[in-house]
């Protein structure tokens, strides 16, 4: 496959604008699990002071002839109305299709029934992003240092990524996924004192102190395994390192393409429909059959007003996620007005990591 690639063009100019337009959402590759997933959390048992600290370097991946940066998905851990029979699913909204979970949640939210409104909060569809990163330093997990993972993050971290790549009247955007001189990202998650505990009575994270620092680093990757493992660095003047990096992405890097959208199979669709049916007024125990569940969901999510075609509920009728209870991810809430601005100066911890 490497012989089909123009390496002079591929490893040439990869700009911030290119990176900004390189988020991937739609594909039909299979999802094979969560191996190599990196998800820092202040709830980590090794994060004893509720302040997660790490430095990472973002890495692009290659798909359909272009460099890509992140995979974006809408996800839901859907339980029935009694909080049972949970199933994790990737929402069809990822593929710009109508999401039955969001449609029913909105219908419940706009209902005159107080019970329906409360139940709408139980159906949470949230946006998540995935990107390849090299962990330069992780205080909580030093065993991760120097390894490449798939970093899972929410809207607030993605906003920082996108804002970094945009130029303004006073600043020039940069490419965090640059092939040769990518700026390091400081993960500095703290307990958010302004937010209440989550549903599991654990602290909610604040992401305001997460930022890109001035220090840049090349991409490091390991070819082979065990005694034959070779640590390599991608450089602009070394064609062999470029070919090795390309082959590593295709064969040895964490399989980020496993996180692409995949159509639901019949079993998943049946479980989703069965759970959603328990939120409708026509639901009675024991659980209805799949056919009855599908009919109940269709009836619950189809409008009957004359102003809208009954078979096609426009996605635009659903307001922004922040306006619907239960639609926000852990890191999607807006910062409070009294939060202290984050300093742009590198602190002692960062300097000690970079100079070690």
What does this structure look like?
- The protein has a single domain, classed as Replication Fork Single-Stranded Dna Binding Protein (Replication Fork Single-Stranded DNA Binding Protein, Alpha-Beta Complex), CATH 3.90.198.10.
- The strands form three sheets. Strands 1, 2, 5, 6, 7, 8, 9, 10 and 11 form a nine-stranded mixed beta sheet that branches. The chain has a two-stranded antiparallel ribbon with strand order 3-4.
- It has nine helices and 13 strands.
- Helix content is 23%, strand content 21%.
- The radius of gyration is 23 Å and the shape is globular.
- The chain is of the alpha+beta class.
- α3 packs antiparallel against α4 and α7 packs across α8.
- The longest helix is centred in the last third of the chain and has 13 residues.
Q: What's the SSE blueprint?
A:
Layout: H1 7-10, H2 16-20, E1 37-38, E2 51-59, E3 61-63, E4 66-68, E5 71-78, E6 87-90, H3 100-109, H4 114-120, E7 126-138, E8 148-153, H5 155-165, E9 182-191, E10 205-206, E11 211-217, E12 220-223, E13 230-233, H6 239-251, H7 266-277, H8 290-301, H9 348-354
Parallel strand pairs: 1-8
Antiparallel strand pairs: 2-7, 2-9, 3-4, 5-6, 5-7, 7-8, 9-10, 9-11, 12-13
Strand content: 15-25%
Helical residue percent? Answer: 10-25%
- CATH topology tier name: Replication Fork Single-Stranded DNA Binding Protein
What structural class should be given to the helix and strand makeup? alpha+beta
Number of domains: 1
């Amino acid at each position: 496959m490497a012989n089909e690639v123009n390496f002079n063009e591929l490893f040439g100019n990869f700009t911030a604008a290119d990176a900004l337009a390189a988020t991937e959402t739609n594909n039909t590759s299979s999802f094979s699990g969560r191996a190599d997933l990196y998800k820092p959390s202040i709830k980590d048992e090794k994060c004893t002071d509720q302040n997660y600290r790490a430095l990472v370097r973002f890495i692009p991946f290659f798909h359909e002839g272009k460099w890509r940066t992140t995979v974006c998905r809408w996800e839901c851990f859907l339980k029935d109305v009694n909080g049972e029979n949970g199933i994790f699913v990737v929402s069809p909204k990822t593929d710009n299709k109508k999401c039955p979970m969001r449609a029913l949640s909105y219908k419940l939210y706009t209902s005159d029934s107080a019970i329906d409104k409360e139940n709408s909060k139980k159906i949470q569809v949230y946006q998540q992003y995935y990107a390849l990163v090299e962990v330069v330093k992780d205080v909580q997990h030093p065993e991760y240092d120097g390894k490449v993972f798939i970093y899972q993050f929410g809207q607030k971290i993605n906003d920082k990524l996108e804002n970094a790549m945009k130029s303004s009247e006073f600043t020039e955007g940069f490419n965090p996924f640059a092939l040769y001189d990518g700026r390091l990202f400081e993960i500095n998650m703290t307990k958010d004192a302004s937010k209440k505990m989550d549903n599991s009575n654990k602290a909610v994270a604040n992401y305001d102190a997460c930022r890109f620092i001035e220090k840049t680093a090349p991409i490091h990757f390991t070819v082979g395994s065990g005694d034959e493992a070779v640590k390599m660095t991608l450089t602009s003047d070394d064609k062999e390192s470029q070919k090795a990096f390309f082959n590593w992405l295709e064969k040895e890097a964490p399989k980020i393409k496993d996180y692409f959208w995949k159509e639901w199979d019949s079993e998943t669709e049946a479980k989703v429909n069965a759970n959603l049916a328990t939120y409708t007024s026509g639901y009675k125990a024991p659980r209805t059959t799949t056919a009855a569940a599908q009919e109940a969901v269709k009836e619950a999510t189809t409008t009957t007003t004359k102003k809208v075609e009954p078979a096609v509920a426009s996605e635009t009728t659903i307001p922004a996620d922040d306006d619907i209870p239960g639609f926000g991810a852990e890191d999607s809430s807006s910062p409070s007005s009294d939060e202290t601005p984050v300093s742009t100066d590198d602190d002692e911890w960062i300097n000690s990591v970079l100079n070690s």
